[in-house]
Design goal:
alpha/beta, MutS, DNA mismatch repair protein, domain I, Nucleotidyltransferase, domain 5, Rossmann fold, 7-stranded mixed sheet, 31 helices, DNA damage
Length: about 950
């Protein structure tokens, strides 16, 4: 945009109070934190200033046109001011002109606009401050609210509907016996949880990476230790993960009062405080409590729950796996995790599709609590085979009972609202009588849920009874007093008929008198309705009485009958909507004003009783949380069974092999496996494929074949099937035996990491190096097209070396998709290596991708055929064919003549020899000889 265009799209507002500008400038100059956005409450709207205004304008409105500029000069206040491209005001050499420059300002409305901007700022990892004018002052401002991505306590009213909490992490790094040790405390004041975890990590900090991803950490408090080399690596890891962090002195990480502080928050510390061996984690907990200022709010005392995150319980997943397998939607994901080819086996389009991620595919939950729990399960697959089997039993119970599943999904669970949101509102004293009525309605639905569960008589009947029926009966019994209170104190008839939420008039003589006045008015309006129907010559049933809290009483007729009041001045039309035309008369409008007045007086008189009712309701928060947990778990199991049953081909229950079953002949075997996210796409007839990852026999699979042939989709689907099984979900296959893996490590995609200043090849090497250092014999490794970012010889050499290292040194399960056909020779040298290829047909001079994975290596290259499919110019195709023919002839006379000889000599090298240097020297000599022959 040109300067002139910007001038026309902005306004110069006349003089603003210099006192505010001076205050604002001093506020900015005294605080160098550029990640803090300040909003000023102007009683009806908010204003944002300076660079903050520019940032918010571009973030929310995607334009600077909403910006205005305040002139702070006494002279020539209407002078046009030149605006730079970044939205700031241009400076000039003249001191006088500099003093005339204005201040950028953005105004935002209270309500949805303010709430959306707060949410967006937190998603952008910004801190927020809300400033308000001091009481009885027109000049002095004070900070009234502040928040950050990991601390949203003061914005709970804005964030009540968010799907995830705001997890703040306090972290201390130490060295013990030569190992890196992390002491972590994590907390979410919104959901009243505080947790601890202490674990040893490797030099790649893989455990820390998994913790950050799997716990959805939003912000970190870091114990400063600048002399510690590990500390610098932690800072880099947090920066790479996009986690804002604040460095704090060691004095903030003191365990001196930790037990006392935790006791106040937890209510009791007995059997709750972690073992003394977790000293670093306890120190971090002390820092977290202090920074979140939890002890300043007495309502928190005794309300928090202590969680202990055990890394050994969950599969390890890092950001590369989340992105590469598209497990969840990551905001910073630069590419689709599945092929963008619109093929049979490979692909979905790169356009938006809600089912592209595994979580979006599975998330058909009926309740917000269920969606939150499912997200946690997807991020934290289990390692314990017994726990996995227990979840599969529940899924199987609902999978096999169609009537129960449909009843719960179609009727029972759908009518249960967000219990987490209700409990937060009640605890934060932000609830209303309407919330009490809503909770009453949810509790009233529980007998229906209970009846549906009692009707189940399948093979897991006892499991359902112990885990759901008995718990639900106990919760319903405990809610008895709450229901009795609501029925006694709140007028449920008014709530159901008119959506008015008030204390029963029978509770107070004054309220009874006011209610009598309101009833008299509503009765008069009803008589008017009957008379007006007669006046309009319409059937009485066609003139309906419409009530809303905002509009009070109006009459409504269908749009077809609108002609009856047209051109009749005594009838005043208030609104026209799909349900009809709403209108009134002057008499009805007058009665509405009186009704509104008495309603306001009623609310004023009932205030004390309403507050007392809400206080009693707040005492049921722990019970609401128990119910929310129970309903969430039930919802997830029902949802997983539903998704499994409605797939194009229903999912099946996998057989689970416990972690650590490392004897030969054990592994993952999948018959007719499918990619769960690709098979549901429109116009896709998915080709199912098999895989056999048997330890000692076929645990390392090399997949070759043409581009677009489905290699990437195939290896990703194996990763997703394994992950789904360890979540406790049925899987897309005809039959599946899944060996539990401790982690899924992936190296997929070949995009440059330009924001990090890292090339394609360097990104490949960094990710692959991480895999080689982290993987164990119980890991699943997925590598796709390694070595494309460098020369052919270097790429092949690295691919060979990495593959051999995985086989001989790590011994884990591996899927290795490659364009280096020469790599298939490994199957002749190592017994655990097997070859697979994606097939294609070239009959009758046509090229057809079959998307079928067959045994053995691919026997030819299809690069030119793929170019034809991509509509390359015919001249390019012809030139490529000619050059390929020349090279093929060249290879026939050189490389192919020595191929068998090279293999024979290579096989004779004793790689098990104790003289490793001699073996390496022989390999090097052979490679040199081979390369000389090529040249």
């Amino acid at each position: 945009m040109s300067d002139n265009e910007q001038e026309e799209s902005s306004q110069v507002v006349l003089k603003e109070d210099k006192t505010f500008v001076t205050f604002f400038q001093s506020l900015i100059s005294s605080n160098e934190d550029t990640d803090t956005i300040r909003l000023f409450d102007r009683k009806g709207y908010y204003s944002i200033h300076g660079e903050d205004a520019v940032f918010v304008a571009m973030m929310h409105f995607k334009s600077k046109k909403s910006l205005k500029y305040w002139s702070i000069s006494d002279s020539n206040p209407k002078k046009k001011i030149k605006i730079d491209n970044d939205g700031s005001l241009s400076t000039t050499s003249s001191q006088q002109q500099q003093q005339e420059l204005g201040l950028a300002v953005l105004t935002i409305r209270q309500g949805y606009e303010f709430e959306n901007i707060v949410k967006e700022l937190l998603e952008e990892k910004k801190k927020i401050e809300i400033w308000s004018m001091k009481p009885n002052s027109k000049q002095q401002w004070e900070l009234v609210r502040k928040g950050s991505p990991g601390n949203t306590q003061m914005f709970e009213d804005v964030l009540l509907n968010t799907s995830e909490g705001s997890v703040m992490m306090a972290l201390k790094v130490a060295r013990e016996k030569g190992s890196i040790v992390f002491g972590i405390s994590f907390g979410d004041a919104t959901f009243k949880t505080i947790g601890v975890s202490q674990f040893i990590d490797n030099d790649n900090l893989s455990n820390l990476s998994s913790f950050i991803m799997q716990m959805s950490v939003k912000e970190c408090l870091l114990c400063s230790d600048v002399k510690n080399y590990d500390y610098q690596k932690v800072k880099e890891k947090l920066s790479d993960a996009g986690i804002p962090f604040t460095e704090l002195p060691k004095s903030d990480f003191s365990s001196k009062n930790a037990e006392q502080d935790l006791t106040r928050l937890l209510g009791t510390v007995k059997n709750n405080l972690p073992d003394i061996e977790q000293e670093h984690a306890i120190q971090s907990a002390s820092c977290l409590i202090k920074h979140l200022d939890l002890l300043s709010n007495p309502s928190y005392f005794g309300k928090f729950k202590l969680e202990k995150f055990d890394l050994d319980r969950y599969m390890k997943l890092d950001s590369a796996s989340f992105k590469g397998l598209h497990i969840i939607d990551l905001k910073d994901s630069s590419a689709s995790s599945v092929s963008s080819t619109a093929g049979v086996s490979g692909g979905v389009s790169s356009g938006s599709n809600k089912d592209q991620s595994l979580y979006n595919l599975l998330n058909q939950c009926n309740t917000p609590m269920g969606s939150r729990l499912l997200l946690q399960w997807v991020k934290q697959p289990l390692l314990n085979a017994e726990e996995i089997e227990a979840r599969l039993n529940f899924v199987e119970a609902f999978y096999n009972d169609l009537e129960l599943r449909q009843s719960l999904r179609s009727n029972d669970l759908k009518k249960i609202g967000d219990l987490d949101r209700l409990s937060k509102k009640l605890h934060g004293q932000k609830a209303t009588l309407e919330d009490c009525v809503n909770l009453y309605g949810i509790v009233s639905r529980l007998p229906v849920v209970l009846q549906s569960l009692n009707n189940h008589n399948g093979m897991h009947q006892e499991l359902i009874k112990v885990n759901f029926i008995e718990s639900l009966e106990s919760i319903m019994s405990d809610f008895g007093k709450f229901c009795a209170m609501v029925e006694k104190t709140i007028d449920l008839d008014l709530a159901n008929d008119k959506h008015e939420y008030v204390i029963r008039s029978s509770f107070d003589e004054t309220l009874r008198g006011i209610q009598l006045k309101k009833d008299q008015i509503s009765n008069k309006i009803e008589r008017f309705r009957v008379d007006i129907a007669d006046d309009l010559n319409l059937d009485e049933a066609k003139v309906k009485l419409h009530y809303s809290e905002k509009e009070m009483f109006l009459l409504r007729i269908s749009r077809k009958d609108e002609v009856a009041i047209r051109d009749k001045k005594k009838y005043i039309v208030h609104a026209t909507a799909k349900d009809g035309v709403r209108f009134a008369t002057r008499e009805i409008d007058t009665l509405n004003e009186a009704y509104k007045k008495w309603s306001a007086e009623y609310l004023d008189k009932q205030d004390g009783l309403a507050k007392r009712t809400l206080q009693i309701a707040a005492s049921f928060v722990p019970l609401i949380e128990d119910l929310a947990s129970l309903i969430a778990t039930l919802d997830v199991f029902v949802t997983l069974s539903h998704v499994s049953s409605i797939a194009p081909i229903p999912f099946i229950r996998p057989e689970i092999i416990p972690l650590g079953s490392d004897e030969d002949g054990v592994g993952t075997v999948i018959i007719g496996g499918r990619h769960p996210c690709v098979e549901i796409q429109d116009n896709v007839n998915f080709i199912a494929n098999d895989i056999d990852l048997t330890r000692g026999q076929s645990q390392f699979q090399i997949i070759t074949g043409p581009n677009m042939g489905g290699k990437s989709t195939f290896i990703r689907q194996i990763g997703l099937i394994v992950l789904m099984a360890q979540i406790g979900c049925f899987v897309p296959a005809q039959k599946a035996t899944i060996a539990v893996v401790d982690c899924i490590l992936s190296r997929v995609g070949a995009g440059d990491s330009q924001l990090r200043g890292v090339s394609t090849f360097m990104a490949e090497m960094l990710e692959t190096s991480y895999i080689l250092k982290v993987a164990t014999k119980n890991s699943l490794i997925i590598i796709d097209e390694l070595g494309r970012g460098t020369s052919t010889y270097d790429g092949f050499g690295l691919a060979w070396g990495i593959a051999e290292y995985i086989c001989n040194q790590i011994g884990g399960f591996c899927l290795f998709a490659t364009h280096f056909h020469e790599l298939t020779i490994l199957s002749d040298l190592l017994p655990m290596v097997k070859n697979l290829h994606v097939s294609a047909s070239t009959e009758n001079n046509t090229f057809t991708l079959l998307y079928k994975v067959d045994q053995g290596p691919c026997d030819q290259s299809f690069g030119i055929h793929v170019a034809v499919l991509a509509n390359f110019p015919s001249q390019v195709i012809e030139n490529a064919k000619q050059k390929a023919k020349e090279l093929e002839s060249f290879e026939s006379n050189t490389l192919k003549q020595n191929h068998n000889k090279f293999l024979e000599e290579f096989k004779e090298i004793n790689f098990n020899s104790e003289d490793v240097e001699k073996s390496l020297s022989l390999v090097n000599s052979l490679l040199n000889k081979y390369s000389i022959d090529i040249n």
